[in-house]
Design brief:
Length: 401
C-alpha cells in the first residue's frame, strides 16, 4: 500500500516536497489556506547561487541550481531561468576570508569558480562600479528565475502525477494517535495520512504548536524593488552581491531588481494577523530600501533616482543559525517540517524537496539532513525574546553572518 502524505503549504518548499513525494509513489494531498504559490514565494528575488557556509548546504544549493536550470526540460514548464552567473564583492578582510572559504568549498565540490578584477566585473555587469574591492568572486553557473512560476510548476506537475491540491483549506489542528501524526483537521473536514509535512512558511510554527511542538522560527519582513527599464541592462548580466552592505542587484525586465538586509529588520508575529490576512496586504517600508540604496550609491549610480516599477515584500522565516529546518520532529513520529528558509527557500526548494522526500520514503537522504534537523536547537531558544533576537541578528547584514 502506498505511503500517504499531507503537505501543508503550497509555497516553493511545500510544492517541491509534494512533487517529489508523488514522484516517489506517495499519495499526496497538498493543502494551503490561500491560492497555491500566492504568498511569500512569488515575492522573492529569485536568486540562485551555489555558495553556502556548510558542505551540506553547498551540496543542496548545487543540486537545486542545476534542477532549476533543467526545470523546463524535466517538467515541460518554464520558470524563466537565466544562467547569468553571479559576482560577489568583499571590501573587508573578514568579508574576503569568508568569500574565499565559500569559493574553495565550491571548488572542492567540482564547481567552476573564479576571482576576477574590478575591470572584469564591470565588463560583465556595466551598471556595477566595484571600486576598491579586496576580492570579487565569480560563479558562472549561478543564475536567477521568475519566482512566481516555481511553486505553481511544482504543484501542477505533482497533480499530473496524481497528487490532490486543496487550495483555500485552512489547517486547524494536527491529528495524533499513539504518539504519531495521523492527519490534520481543516475548515473543510479531517484529512488522514501516514505522515504530515509542515511547510507553511510564516505559519509553520503556529501549526506545529497545535501538535505541541516548538519550532524556533521568526518571520521577518524582507523587501525589494524593481526599476523601470534602464539602458544597457541585459538579462544575462550577472547577479551582483556586496557582502558587507548585504545587498543584491540583478537584471529584471530591462530594469534592475534591488534588495538587501537592513540593520534593524521588522519581525512579524503571525499570531497577531487576522484570519483573512494575505502577504499582498503586508505593510511595506520603501525607506528601508532607499537607505540601503544610498549606502551603495557609489557602486550602483544608475539606481540614483531610477523610477520604480515594483515594490514588493514577503515574510521569510529566519532561524537562530541561519540554516533551514528540514526533517522529522523527534517528539511526534510522522510529523516533518520544511521551513526556516532564511530568505533562500525558493532557490533551495528543488533539492530540499527531493532530499526530504527521500528521507520520508527511504528513511535516509543524500546529503544527510541531520545537520538541518530541529534537534540542533533542542536545549536553546525556549525564551521567545531570545529566539527573536537571535533570528533578527541572523537577518541583519546577512551576507557577513
Amino acid at each position: 500500500m502506498a505511503l500517504s502524505a499531507i503537505v501543508i503549504g503550497a509555497g516553493a518548499l511545500g510544492a517541491a516536497t509534494a512533487y517529489h513525494l508523488t514522484r516517489r509513489g506517495a499519495e499526496v494531498v497538498l493543502v494551503d489556506q490561500h491560492a497555491p504559490g500566492s504568498q511569500t514565494s512569488p515575492r522573492a528575488a529569485g536568486l540562485s547561487q551555489k555558495a553556502a557556509s556548510t558542505e551540506t548546504m553547498a551540496r543542496l544549493m548545487i543540486e537545486a541550481t542545476e534542477a532549476l536550470a533543467s526545470f523546463e526540460q524535466d517538467t515541460g514548464r518554464s520558470i524563466d531561468f537565466h544562467r547569468s552567473g553571479s559576482l560577489k564583492a568583499a571590501y573587508t578582510e573578514d568579508g574576503e576570508a569568508r568569500m574565499l572559504a565559500d569559493l574553495e568549498r565550491l571548488r572542492g565540490l567540482g564547481v567552476q569558480v573564479e576571482l576576477v578584477s574590478s575591470a572584469e566585473a564591470e565588463r560583465l555587469a556595466p551598471w556595477f562600479k566595484p571600486g576598491e574591492a579586496r576580492a570579487i568572486g565569480y560563479v558562472p553557473s549561478d543564475g536567477y528565475l521568475e519566482p512566481s512560476t516555481l511553486p505553481i510548476g511544482f504543484m501542477q506537475r505533482a497533480v499530473e502525477l496524481g497528487a490532490r491540491a486543496m487550495p483555500f483549506t485552512r489547517v486547524t489542528d494536527v491529528l495524533q494517535q499513539d504518539g504519531r501524526a495521523v492527519g490534520v483537521a481543516t475548515n473543510r473536514g479531517e484529512l488522514r495520512a501516514d505522515i504530515v509535512v509542515d511547510a507553511a512558511g510564516a505559519w509553520t510554527a503556529p501549526i506545529a504548536a497545535r501538535a505541541g511542538i516548538r519550532i524556533p522560527l521568526q518571520p521577518v519582513l524582507h523587501q525589494l524593488y524593481v526599476t523601470e527599464p534602464i539602458a544597457d541592462v541585459e538579462p544575462l548580466q550577472p547577479v551582483v552581491r556586496l557582502l558587507e552592505a548585504s545587498v543584491y542587484v540583478r537584471p529584471e525586465k530591462g530594469g534592475l531588481l534591488f534588495g538587501g538586509y537592513e540593520d534593524a529588520p521588522r519581525p512579524v508575529d503571525p499570531g497577531t494577523l487576522p484570519s483573512n490576512f494575505q502577504i499582498a496586504t503586508l505593510e511595506l517600508d520603501l525607506g528601508v530600501l532607499r537607505s540601503l540604496t544610498d549606502e551603495v550609491a557609489a557602486h550602483f549610480p544608475v539606481l540614483d533616482n531610477a523610477p520604480l516599477a515594483v515594490h514588493r515584500g514577503g515574510l521569510p522565516t529566519m532561524t537562530p543559525d541561519g540554516l533551514p529546518i528540514l526533517g522529522l520532529m523527534p517528539s511526534l513520529d510522522g510529523f516533518y517540517v520544511a521551513s526556516g528558509c532564511n530568505v533562500g527557500g525558493l532557490s533551495l526548494s528543488p533539492a530540499a524537496g527531493r532530499a526530504l522526500a527521500d528521507l520520508i520514503v527511504d528513511g535516509t537522504s543524500d546529503p544527510d539532513l541531520g545537520p538541518l534537523s530541529v534537534e540542533r536547537f533542542r536545549d536553546g531558544y525556549a525564551d521567545p525574546a531570545e529566539l527573536q533576537a537571535a533570528c533578527l541578528d541572523r537577518y541583519a547584514r546577512r551576507y557577513v553572518k
